[in-house]
Specification:
CATH class of the largest domain: Alpha Beta
Shape: globular
Radius of gyration: 17 Å
Number of strands: 3
Distance between the termini: 28 Å
Strand order of the largest sheet: 2-1-3
Length: 202
């Protein structure tokens, strides 16, 4: 069965003024759609056609013969995940178990904020900043291009897309401003908390 572009979990203008409807039209409707379309074309008629998206990402990572499949599958997965990391009136410090986990493993909210922003801003070129569970503990990391925690054996809790198409229409070359807006106004901590709960159950 072919993969499909999932709808955004909110209206295109819901994240304004921090992410514009125009950015989402291009980012979701053009870039994300292109990854889905290309992935379907690449796996049509192959054994991968019957695999889940997660299985494809894991099976093709570091397989030089399937680099293009991995790049598109990982970017589909990353974007599916990213849209759920955002919500209107989000951001700021989390509460409850998540706040305690940040305190225990990463030095608390303000230290997390500084370190996550650094990971996102310092990622050279295109890529992603992540909050993950790695060997039972929270960790901040960043990856190049389409590489993601799924491929690396980690559990993703949160991501920020720092490819230029994620922010250029709204922020031009000011990636730090986009990342700060993400932290202050856009993070869907409910989704992050759900991911942490699932990670604990594994």
């Amino acid at each position: 069965m072919a993969f499909e572009l999932p709808p955004l979990p909110y209206p295109k203008n819901a994240l304004e003024p921090y992410t514009s409807a125009r950015t989402l039209e291009f980012h979701h409707g053009k870039h994300h759609q292109a990854y889905v379309t290309t992935l379907n074309e690449l796996i049509e008629g192959s054994p991968l056609e019957r695999k889940s998206l997660e299985e494809i990402v894991k099976a093709t990572y570091k397989d030089e013969a399937k680099t293009k499949v991995f790049n598109n599958a990982a970017q589909v997965w990353n974007h599916n995940f990213f849209w759920n990391c955002l919500k209107p009136n989000g951001g700021g410090a989390p509460k409850g178990d998540l706040a305690q986990a940040l305190e225990r493993d990463l030095g608390g909210w303000h230290k997390f904020e500084d370190d996550f922003k650094k990971a996102a801003v310092d990622q050279f070129g295109s890529g992603w900043a992540w909050l993950v569970v790695d060997k039972g503990k929270l960790k901040i990391t960043h990856t190049l291009n389409g590489v993601d925690p799924l491929a690396l054996g980690q559990t993703a809790l949160l991501t920020c897309d720092v490819w230029e198409h994620a922010y250029y229409l709204d922020y031009q070359n000011r990636r730090p401003d986009f990342v700060q807006a993400f932290l202050d106004h856009l993070i869907n901590w409910d989704f992050v908390a759900q991911n942490l709960t699932k990670a604990k159950a594994r």
